[in-house]
Each structure stands twice: as structure tokens, then as C-alpha cells.
Amino acid sequence: MDPVLVTLGDVSLRKSDLVLLNDGEWLNDAVIQFALERLELDGAVDRRRTALVGPAVVHLLRHIDDEDFARSVANPLKLESKETVFLPVNDSEG
């Protein structure tokens, strides 16, 4: 059993996710998304100037072959109007 230890916004961290915070471990999407949620909820990010794009969206954008579909995913983020865009990328394919 892998119980949920904490939920923030739409993301939950499980006991197995916390192990990934140890030295030498790789962060997963849940840990990264939790950190992004925390930054936004704490007001550490000016949403008018900065976009924090979640890892699931970044993964989707990286693997979309259909340019129109990619635009339909990216356009609501209004990335062109931001001074800073944070796109967490992982090497999930090794």
C-alpha cells in the first residue's frame, strides 16, 4: 500500500514520492507538480509575467505530432506574453 501523505491543489504526494527527495534520487512528475503548486499558492510567482507549465503538459507537448493539436494545448497558456516560462523536462525514456 502506498498511502497519500499530503494533497495540495490537484496534486497528491504518496509515501513512495517522498523517497525521491533523498540525495541521488530523480524527481518524478508528482514531486515536481507539487513544488509548482506550492510556488503558485505561496504567491512566489507573478502569474502575469511567469508561466509554470506542469510536467504532464510538457511531456504531452514534446510528443505531439499534430501541430494544430499542439497549438490547442499551448495557446491557452499564453506563453508568448510571459517574460519567463518554466518547462520541466525529464529523461523518462532513459
Automatic annotation (TrEMBL):
Keywords: Hydrolase, Protease, Thiol protease
One GO process term, biological-process aspect: protein deneddylation
InterPro entries membership: Nep1/2-like, Papain-like_cys_pep_sf
GO MF annotation: an example: cysteine-type peptidase activity
Residue ranges the record marks as coiled coil: none
Protein name: Uncharacterized protein
Organism: Rhizoclosmatium globosum
